[in-house]
Amino acid sequence: MTVDRLRLEQGRDQALRDLLDLERQVRDGELPADVADGLRQTYERTAARALALLAAPTPDEVGATSVTDRSSRRGRLVAYGLAVAVALFAAVVLLPVYLGERPTGGTVSGNEALGPVASGADEDTAPRDLSTVTNEEMEDVVAQNPDVLDMRLALAHRYLDEGDYLAAARHYLVALDREPRNVEAQSHYGWLLMQAGEPDQALEYVDRALAQDPRAVEALWFRANIALYGLSDPAGALTVLEQLQQRTDIEPATRSQVETLIAEARAQAGSG
């Protein structure tokens, strides 16, 4: 790792830590909102600049012609394109979980904090559908209910899907500060790092999530994609994907996505 890249990573991490500490100071009444707003903009600009520079090609990569370099660049480019496939996977398989359709006995989604729909519903039992709620509304609710992690994570997932990595990172880091072993926050922050061009760090976070819950479907899916598209490791991806393929508790849509990626991993393994 070059000195410049190390400095960028340190700057990014420090800015994100500063944002995290700023949220705590505002929450605890240590800073007035107007002062916090100015500091937040400064920290966000610093983190955004570092993330953008880290995601850009290095001078060594520009014009490189070796097989290794071409493979590495292709991995990064496909990883960004793969966001579409991962978004589809989330929309078809995982979105109902984010929107409150939790299994009986599961954790609450957090949308109870939004209150009932405006009309035509039982005010005691009908929370609002999160798909009709704006990011701004959710930000307000998260600020008013900072301990409802599921709501914060639902908002962070939205930002991640929209490509607003800085806003997503802020909420994931707050969630991890409050609940360091949260599997959902760990795995999604790992996927965010993958999108920011940091597959090695991404893998660390996803592996932490899998250490807590080795059967977490999202974390396994992210790990396979990181291996295949971020680390150019189709064999590692196949190990995870075949594990998912053998599961009897996943939906047909999930299985279809897994089988599609298995075919891609086998193709890459063959061409390599």
TrEMBL record:
The chain crosses the membrane at residues 77-99. Pfam families: TPR_19 (PF14559). The keyword Membrane applies. Residues 105-128 are annotated as: Disordered. TPR repeats lie at residues 149-182, 183-216. InterPro entries: TPR-like_helical_dom_sf, TPR_rpt. This is Tetratricopeptide repeat protein.
